[in-house]
Write a structure and sequence with these properties.
Number of strands: 7
Low-confidence stretches: none
Number of domains: 1
Radius of gyration: 14 Å
Distance between the termini: 26 Å
Order of helices and strands: HHEEEEEEEH
Oligomer: single chain
Strand content: 35-45%
CATH topology: Peptide Deformylase
Number of helices: 3
CATH class: Alpha Beta
CATH architecture: Alpha-Beta Complex
Structural class: alpha+beta
Shape: globular
Bound molecules: zinc ion
Strand order of the largest sheet: 1-2-3-6-7
Largest sheet: 5 strands, antiparallel
Amino acid sequence: MIRPIVKDKFLLSQKSAPADKNDLQTAQDMVETIAAHSHECVGMAANMIGVLKRIIVFEEGAKYVVMLNPVVKWESPETYVIKENCLCHEGAKEVTRHEAIEVEFLDIRMRKCRKRYDGITAEIIQHELDHLEGILV
Ligand SMILES: [Zn+2]
């Protein structure tokens, strides 16, 4: 189900709680919602649809990747500064991102995965992980 995008700063600044298999419907809703916003949004955290659980969805190539409880296990010492936009609010904000990261997470089938990302995908994941901590970029 496509859900409305939350713009409430108070809700968006809360830290999200761990997700489990009961949250898979939320993950599915996130995929449908991000697909409906594909012209303006490449990543989404669950709090953007009002659910305070640690779930992110992002575009990778032609598909959407769902991560439950993502944790950064390694980050490159190389960083860069970039201006990012967010669907939840107006205006760009300057942030520092790592060029590459390694993330441990559960996939949509609740399998434990560990994967390395770089470039724009690593940037999107870092942006969505900020959302899980209640950080608004
Ligand atoms: Zn955002």
